[in-house]
Design brief:
The chain is mainly β. The chain is about 10% helix and about 50% strand.
Length: about 425
């Protein structure tokens, strides 16, 4: 009932949107460099106080202005918890640095002493009583990550583009070593002891090479009201650094934006699939969800704010998986504030995802003393969630997002709220 009430309430807001629209926007447009800084301040009982900042920086050029497009964009994010968790992330995006080529690049460094880990294939039951409670942090281990990513996109036709890219990732994975918690009572420790996670997966680095095509007819990239955005590409990782692993993955995305009537109401959906074609990836590379354009610092497994919202982040990690997002985007009010364009929108959503081919099926069957058929059956279960988002848009390109969602199964976690930047697709 609460989920239904949230959706109904947002639809009522949509019905009143016409009367709430502000006067016509000014013809004045931003010029030159513009920055939108925001502080990061929070408290976590385990990690302590968090402090930091996030900033989007745009170069709109001199006259004539290219607004609402931009010449260059930087996104910078840095935060630190007083008990150890640290994140530093920077992104760059431009279609003007190199003629006829769009370049997107990012650099990420993270140390996480309480990295969330829910096993593989979504089959491990979730118990809130052992989730950072009474000396037990069952769903955590320590992880450090360094990653560089780059993508290049050029035109074949006005709507069809070639895509290529290169990334490098390096991981260090360690047993939980956090004051007050039992390092021997974790899911990571259990799977390591039983050989599902192997000794040679404690650390490692990979170069990944990407190639494919993109089809794009969106009218405006940050918040499209009509058009289609599709992607097909391969990601290959040869064993350059001698890890003993190599793999080839396939990724496909189809996104459709429909505005059936007034421009304040848009229907949007996203269908996606990612799978391993050849070889095997180590467990720490397996959760990566690949994207041509970066929405967040990282996206891992199905669940969390980038894929199936309202489900535990990284809850579903398989060899192959599929997911879908459906939402109604309704701009409730818009206008000018201190000479800058802004709007407020709501987006009720429904998400789902499932494993189409499990990861390390035989190893899990041995470790759990279950048949492969039973684990395969559990892994292919459909996971669903629903919720409501609130968006605050500024200068058309900057979108702050707050989304709350709840899974349909308690095994996928409690109600969650995520604060981030951008629509997820």
């Amino acid at each position: 009932m609460r989920r239904a009430g949230a959706v109904i309430a947002s639809l009522i807001l949509c019905l009143g949107a016409v009367t709430l629209q502000a006067q016509d926007l000014s013809e004045d447009t931003p010029l030159g460099w513009k920055a939108i800084p925001l502080p990061i301040l929070s408290f976590n009982s385990d990690l302590g106080f968090q402090f930091g900042a996030t900033t989007d920086i745009y170069d709109y050029g001199r006259e004539p202005s290219v607004f609402p497009e931009y010449l260059h964009k930087f996104h910078v994010e840095a935060s630190h918890y007083t008990k150890g968790q640290t994140l530093a992330h920077i992104e760059y995006d431009s279609s003007h640095l190199v003629d006829a080529v769009r370049i997107s690049a990012s650099l990420t460094a993270q140390i996480d002493p309480l990295y969330n880990f829910y096993g593989f294939n979504g089959i491990s039951p979730y118990d809130r009583n052992v989730d950072r409670n009474d000396g037990v942090a069952y769903y955590n281990y320590k992880r450090s990550l360094f990653r560089f990513q780059s993508n290049f996109l050029g035109d074949i036709t006005p709507n069809i583009h070639w895509v290529t890219g290169l990334s490098f990732s390096y991981y260090v994975n360690e047993e939980l070593n956090f004051s007050g918690y039992d390092s021997s009572n974790t899911l990571y420790h259990f799977l390591r002891e039983r050989g599902v996670i192997r000794d040679d997966e404690r650390k490692g680095g990979f170069f990944e090479f990407k190639g494919g095509m993109s089809f794009d007819t969106r009218d405006f990239e940050p918040s499209p009201s009509k058009g289609i955005w599709g992607e097909l590409y391969l990601v290959g990782a040869p064993d350059i650094l001698g890890t003993g692993y190599s793999y080839l993955k396939f990724s496909a995305h189809f996104r459709h934006y429909i505005t059936p009537g007034p421009d304040w109401l848009t229907l949007a959906y996203h269908l996606a699939y990612q799978g391993t074609i050849l070889g095997e990836a180590p467990f720490y590379m397996q959760p990566n969800i690949y994207s041509l354009l970066f929405k967040q610092a990282y996206s891992e497994g199905l669940g969390g704010l980038n894929t199936v919202r309202g489900i535990l982040s990284g809850r579903l990690v398989g060899n192959d998986y599929a997911w879908a997002n459906f939402e109604i985007r309704c701009r409730v009010i818009s206008g000018l504030l201190l000479g800058r364009e802004w709007y407020i929108a709501v987006n009720p959503f429904f998400d789902m995802g499932f494993i189409t081919r499990p990861y390390r099926l035989s190893e899990l069957a041995t470790a759990l003393d279950e048949s492969e058929a039973e684990i395969d059956r559990k892994a292919r279960a459909l996971h669903k969630s629903a919720g409501l988002g609130l968006k605050f848009g500024f200068d058309r390109n900057y979108i702050m997002s707050v989304e709350g969602g709840k899974s349909f199964s308690n095994d996928d976690g409690p109600f969650s709220i995520a604060i981030a930047i951008n629509y997820i697709f």
